[in-house]
Amino acid sequence: EAMRPLGLVLVPTRELAIQVAEVLQPVADHAGMKVLPVYGGASRNHQVDEMAKGVEIVVATPLRLIDLIKSNEINLDDVQIVTLDEADRMADDGFTPQVEWSLRHCVNRNQTMLFSATLDGDLIRAYQTNPETVAIDEATDTVGEMSHLFLGVHHMDRDKVIATIAKGIPKIIVFCQTKRLCDKVDQELH
User: Phi and psi dihedrals of 112, rounded to 5?
Assistant: First the structure.
């Protein structure tokens, strides 16, 4: 029989699926619920076995979710709340048809939340009815003492440039495209 979760979080990447599930699990524990991340690039059988134990909240990437719906491993009829995390990124990455297909299976949802650093009106109109915007900061807020510097650096020189900058600044943050690249940059900097 297909697993029937009560909540669904859609995310664009497996790294984000794991991260969101880890953050939600302590809260779910207090409510007596279980959270499960489901995503491609990992054992499908293991995820199906975990679902069979009973899961109330699923954190999924769109393609793995569709795969599980089509194989009748998951049924979204009981989902009440849907959250699209990084909604703008999912749209930019071409997941809009998959997200819309999945949402059509959430026939009884009564709340749809979109989380995003930047969100355009098309996404809001496509996924929400009577939307309400909750913002952390106003768009007009500014930081007085911040400056930005953009450097065009050949990828082979990137680590050397970062290391040189880090010598003159007590704390820096380096953003990378993938977890693997983060690990590589960390090793190179050490």
Answer: -125, 120
